[in-house]
From TrEMBL:
It catalyses: 4-CDP-2-C-methyl-D-erythritol + ATP = 4-CDP-2-C-methyl-D-erythritol 2-phosphate + ADP + H(+). Residues 67-142 form the GHMP kinase N-terminal domain. Residues 210-259 form the GHMP kinase C-terminal domain. Belongs to the GHMP kinase family. IspE subfamily. The gene is ispE. GO terms for biological process: isopentenyl diphosphate biosynthetic process, methylerythritol 4-phosphate pathway; terpenoid biosynthetic process. Transmembrane segments: none annotated. Keywords: ATP-binding, Isoprene biosynthesis, Kinase, Nucleotide-binding, Transferase. One of its GO terms (molecular function) is 4-(cytidine 5'-diphospho)-2-C-methyl-D-erythritol kinase activity. This is 4-diphosphocytidyl-2-C-methyl-D-erythritol kinase.
């Protein structure tokens, strides 16, 4: 049986509304999630028994069994009843704590790859259930197309978006998601903002109706994150001054992104001297 290599894409959130914490400990959210061509690579190699995870590139500084890719393989093998093992090698390019979904993407790649490697012993609905048990973002990466996400992030509806150029700024440090949610909960006594409207945002982007779009794309985490890390607010403002039509925090940070249409001239951001990552969105449901 041959090894399998899969691309494990990063993602951004075009807008993110966070509601109150639910009884199950998760928060209600509304967001648009977009997979990117920038990402990691996951290599799966069959072995007689056991699960082994190795990373190259960015080091995670976590135990092997704490890696979400390990847990994905463990749950898959349990569900399928397969007695074989797997060697997982991850070429890490997505920074941790960046709001780009690297760990969730790796877990989804493992689920997809193992199912392919062993001739699809697990049905798609069962893969989705495993993904939900691993984390709120993991089901999205099974779809690998732009989606509106609701609930705790696992209620997904694929959408069509044009090809986008995505400009990423990672500041060199991560922001723990747990801290961001605690800080957000402490900062508000009651919900005063309405959820974002994915329908309006999507239509404006598709029709190139850019007037007022930046005001529609709000992220609930930005006030608390920008208060602690004002340099990220400055990066967002810099991007908005450089011919991008939307800029903001991805997830709970720490990455700030800017969007352009793929056919537009490149935004003049390089004179700033900041370490930008330039990538594109992955194709949407219509292949646009």
């Amino acid at each position: 049986m041959d090894s399998i290599i899969l691309h494990s894409p990063a993602k951004i959130n075009i807008g993110l509304w966070v509601g109150r914490k639910r009884a199950d400990g998760h928060h209600e959210i509304v967001t648009i999630m977009v997979p990117l061509k920038f990402g990691d690579y996951v290599r799966l190699s069959p072995k007689r028994s056991g699960i082994q995870v190795k990373t190259t590139g960015i080091q995670l500084n976590i135990g092997e069994k704490e890696n979400l890719a390990y847990r994905a393989a463990q749950l898959f093998l349990q569900k399928s009843g397969i007695k074989a093992g797997v060697q997982i090698t991850i070429k890490k390019r997505i920074p941790t704590g960046a709001g780009l979904g690297g760990g969730s993407s790796n877990a989804a790649a493992v689920l997809i790859g193992l199912n392919r490697m062993f001739d699809n012993p697990v049905k798609q609905a069962e893969l989705v259930e495993i993904a939900r048990n691993l984390g709120s973002d993991v089901p999205f990466f099974l779809k690998d197309v732009p989606c509106v996400a609701r609930g705790r992030g696992d209620k997904l509806r694929p959408i069509s978006l044009p090809a986008l150029r995505v400009i990423l700024f990672y500041p060199g440090f991560g922001i723990p998601t747990a801290w961001a949610y605690r800080a957000l909960d402490r900062s508000r006594q009651k919900l005063t903002s309405r959820p974002i409207s994915p329908k309006i945002i999507t239509l404006k982007i598709r029709r190139r109706e850019l007037a007022g779009l930046a005001e529609q794309v709000k992220n609930s985490f930005e006030p608390v994150v920008f208060s602690r890390y004002p340099q990220l607010a400055r990066v967002k403002n810099l991007l908005l001054s450089k011919n991008v039509f939307v800029a903001g925090l991805s997830g709970s940070g720490s990455t700030v992104y800017g969007l352009q249409y793929a056919t537009d001239p490149m935004a003049d951001v390089f004179r700033s001297g900041l370490p930008w990552i330039i990538t594109r969105s992955r194709p949407s449901v219509t292949g646009k």
